[in-house]
Amino acid sequence: MQPSLHFFTPKHQSLLQTQSQLFTCKFIVNPAKKTVPRNPLPLLSPPAPSRSSPHPEVVEPMVQRERSNVLVPQHPNYPVHLNRFQKLAAVALDKIETSVIMRLEKNHVLPKMVDPAVQISGNFAPVEECPVHHGLEVVGRIPACLRGVYVRNGANPMFAPSGGHHLFDGDGMIHAVGLGLGNNASYSCRYTRTSRLVQEARFGRCMFPKPIGELHGHLGLARLGLYMARAGLGLVDGSHGMGVANAGLGYFNGRLLAMSEDDLPYHVKITGDADLETIGRFNFNDQIDCPLIAHPKLDPVTGDLHTLNYNVLKKPYLKYFRFDKFGRKSRDLRVDIDQATMIHDFAITENFVVIPDHQMVFKLSEMIRGGSPVVYNKNKTSRFGVLQQNDVVGSGIQWINVRNCFCFHLWNAWEEISDTGDKIIVVIGSCMNPPDSIFNESKDTFRSELSEIRMNLRTRQSTQRVIVPGMNLEAGQVNGQYLGQKTRFVYLAIADPWPKCSGIAKVDLQTGKVTKFMYGTWRYGGEPFFVPEKKQTCNRNGNEDEGYIMGFVRDEKKEMSEMVIVQGSSMEQVAAISLPSRVPYGFHGTFISQEELRRQVI
After folding, report:
1. pLDDT at 508
2. pLDDT tens profile 413-467
3. Is the N or C terminus of the chain more exposed, i.e. has fewer CB atoms within 10 Å?
4. Of 79, 27, 62, which is closest to residue 437 (Cα–Cα)?
5. CA-to-CA distance for 189 and 61, rounded, in angstroms?
6. Was 133 annotated as part of a binding site?
7. Please, what is the Cα angle at 281 between 279 and 285, to 5 degrees?
8. Which positions are annotated as binding Fe cation (predicted)?
9. Residue 63: what are its φ and ψ, rounded to 5°?
10. Is residue 276 a contact partner of residue 190, using CB atoms and an 8 Å limit?
11. What pLDDT digit, counting tens, does each position of 71-120 carry?
12. What is the three-class DSSP state of 482?
């Protein structure tokens, strides 16, 4: 019989192959200033064997290195599979990089948004992999309904950047906390073994361009040319994807998927010992061959998964996909937009898909002019596209202008009927100003205010109001059992004072009342994740907030990390789990129940 903390585990799946693109966007929270590591980051040795099987599964380390505190880049290691010509070419290209490109880059002062000394410092500095640690100290009681694994994604660069680096450029690392019977808890963290990371580990250095940190101006074009030369000589291979899988996490049809919109998702297995193991890129059983955004939407009623693909190079710039609860893709739907646009998130209702088309766009030609390919187009009017889920060609999409609106994240949407009988689409999101705040420095005060947008499908008119003025609220969610339906509560990180996240806000969307849970002095966290206490059908009996909120917290003064569990109804802490190593601030997470883990697919 298996111990209570252990779960049913699947076998390996072969690595899946597809194409990828270079540009990606995710959400940044909390850059701080401290020492930035300049040496490649070693991975720990394999974890201890699982107690759940006589034939333990071992997650092998990607590279074996001695620990070093020297803050300088390590000399490259040329893989043994290269022939003599390739090795000579590799040496020559490395010389061009170090003697020409890097020397020219040193003559330019890096903006804070791409300065490694800012972007990967303090508690944003990367950490090593950590094998499973059991028997963690727990203060309070872990609720009985929380039996499973909480996982959270984040950017954790394995190798020191040679040029600019944005937080979004880091390699994906997942942190996992297993919750079992008897107040037992475990912790581990593992890199997602992306094709990009595996190849760079062979060389012992960065080999692929960093889409946001490096691809700026003429030197960005030089970096791109360097990559193309390496790829042309067979030193690196981008045909298996170049994504970092560091942003979103979702559990669909028996698979945990690690996502970033520069690639296909990666399938990651949660082992019987609550460890993590990368299975490979997942193309939904050969049904797709393009990257997907990091925020798919799972319909709690139908079990369908809705998602998008955007292309920065050619039309169609945007496509919509839907998979049924068995993982079968219904169709590819082209969404006509005039310009390659950054679409990080979207929303669903019972019958519609709501797609933002905002002012952050991609213009690769700007690199020729010496600028960034990610551009804030002030002349563009923000709008939302409302698409029927059963539309088979996309021609029925309705575009409704919503001026001065940039929502990096949307928390929910639903349908209402007005007093005059018109259908209204209600969207709840955090409106960010300036829109390019996470990519460029600005003299304007940063704001990310929770807002309600109402769009009339008959008149195509919109209204917008701030629900909680004067408070920066970002990174969060509603009770997932009500996604796409009218909700009363939303749980968000208090990104105030920006960019620190000092607590959690429970916002009553009906009254505007805010109930806060503050982490305390020198303590900061990230996205709160809500887990409902019971599975229930949608109703309005006031039990929407019956559940628990969990997330990682870092005490910067005591230099300690923990996971806190807060009751959703009272917003009071019920448990805190001390973690054996530092957990950097990161991006998005999810909770997989023990019942769901038993149904992991092979």
Report:
1. 94
2. 999 998 888 999 999 999 888 877 777 777 778 888 899 999 999 999 999 999 9
3. N
4. 27
5. 12
6. no
7. 100
8. 295, 344, 409, 588
9. -140, 150
10. yes
11. 234 556 777 788 888 888 888 888 888 888 888 888 878 778 888 888 88
12. helix
Residue 216 in marked binding region? no
User: Which distant-in-sequence residues (6+ apart) come within 8 Å of 530 by Cβ?
Assistant: 477, 478, 479, 480, 491, 547, 548, 549, 568
Taking the alpha carbons of 514, 515, 519, 525 in that order, is the dihedral positive or negative?
Answer: negative
Reported as a single tens digit per residue, the pLDDT across 486-521 is 999 999 999 877 777 999 999 999 999 999 999 999
| Residue spans of the chain under pLDDT 50 | 1-59, 61-73, 538
The predicted model scores a pTM of 0.85
Q: What's the burial of 83, exposed, middle or buried (CB within 10 Å: 0-12/13-18/19+)?
A: exposed
| Torsion-angle region of 234 (φ positive above 0: left; ψ -120 to 50: alpha; else: beta) | left
Is 358 annotated to bind ligand? no
Residue 485 and residue 510 in contact, taking contact as beta carbons nearer than 8 Å: no
DSSP code string of 230-291: HHHTTSS--TT------SEEEEETTEEEEE-TTS--EEEEE-TTS-EEEEEE--TTTT--S-
Local structure of 116: helix, strand or coil:
helix
β-pairing verdict for 185-191 and 248-252: unpaired
**Left if phi > 0, otherwise alpha if psi is -120 to 50, otherwise beta: which for 460?**
left
